[in-house]
Amino acid sequence: MRRLLGKLDGLFRSTAPGPFPYTSAILSTIKRILNTIVLKQSISLQEYFERIVVGYSQLAAETQSGPLGNEAVLGMLGAVINIVVRNCPEGTVQRVADNFYTLFRQTSFNTSHIRLSAYFSSPSAAKVILSTWMLAALPKALDAAVLLKGSVADGIEDLVLFASQTPSQTIELNCLRQVALYINKHLSNKDLILASNLLDKTLQSLYSNDSNPDYGLRLSFFVTKALVLRLAPQSNASLESLINLLSSPNTSIARQAALLFRAILAPDDVLSKENYAQIRLLAPQRVFQSLVPLISTRFRSSQSPAEKENYLIALSGILATVPSDIVMPELPTLLPLLLQSLDISDQNVKTATLETLAVVITTNPSALEESGHVAALTKRLLATAALKNNTGSSAQQPSLPRTRRLATRCITLMSKYLAGSTARANPLLSLKGEVLRGLLPVLDDPKRDVRKEAVDARAAWLRGVDDEGDEDDDE
């Protein structure tokens, strides 16, 4: 470790232009070593505090070029600092709480009573990124001025303002992460009205022709994520307010909102259990039970094809981040929507849908059989697996290799798990010829992984889907 830190010292003092693969590799190695020390030996990392946390923070604050002027390197350094802070004694963590916004260079933030705007008057990447990782490392119950209700409210206000004005996506992301950390960890339930008011104000601006709607959407989803993960009383209302965006007359806002639903339950390195975030076990169930029936109802009542597509995109994002055991009881409602999701050109939607269908086929094939959608699903899977669109329409984009491979994999799984029962004939018998013909162009796919999957699928259907006539001939 001493040798690695010595090399890092030299690299950090360099002003050479990027990229910085060697610096990134050393930081990645240090991170892995520190994690190993903590996991296997369960010891404090106090011995690294002055050199890594204090020393590198001060150096980053004074450096505008070289590795410490690079946002990606700063992000990796922030993750290393985060590990050290989380594994230091309480007194050291308190020192971090007093100094993380100043990067240990000025008067303690805990005693200065200065608004965050004074430190971020011209926010640099180093200030914002490193302070995000250090804020994440602070436990919920820490006694620090920056975590008092008044300071948190002022801090959120300043961070929202900085994020709305910066041209840097990285600075915006880290400001929004800090907002989410404050809401999730450092506001009591009775003080969550601050978050509700912020969300209401942001949504109102979106309906009033906001000049920066993309930022408003990202802020809305970060605030909602912070509330939902802790199962705040406002969770249901917040989720419903996001669903309302899908029918916005502004089609750009509606589509962008649909794409962001995946972020609500997506894992986050900063807002995580390791960083003492409040992440309740029932949060995925709350999101699913609140949103899916609402999406299903509004999808059926909508008369707009674009709006219907937004609901399907949002649904795919939710299903991609929810455990399968939560999804299975709602299959009768979901299957028609999943089938229509395969008709959407968005590859992320198709991928999420195919992954969900693979779980359905393997864990609950009887539900698929009883739904009566086996034939419709098979036709859509064949169309998705093919590189060229058989309909001849130029509007439908060809599926990406991963999408084609997943679709072909689902065809293979159908032959293995949908075999009918003693009371019913195999539902795949009437589809066998169509599937074998439909797989022929997939066997010529330019991607080897797709071709291999097609070979496996064809063999599985030839072996596993036999009718009685074939068996009689063999006798």
Task: Describe this entry's structure for a reader.
The protein has 475 residues and is mostly helical. The chain has a domain at 1-147. Helices cover 65% and strands 0% of the residues. The chain contains 25 helices and no strands. Helix 12 (213-229) runs antiparallel to helix 13, helix 12 packs parallel to helix 14 (251-260) and helix 19 packs parallel to helix 22. Residues 391-395 and 469-475 have low confidence and may be disordered.
Give the terminus-to-terminus CA distance: 72 Å
Number of helices, where a helix is a run of at least 4 consecutive DSSP H or I residues: 25
Instruction: Please give the number of β-strands.
Output: 0
- Overall shape: globular
The value of Rg in angstroms is 26 Å
Which percent band covers the strand fraction? under 5%
Largest sheet: none
Q: What level of helicity do the residues show?
A: 55-70%
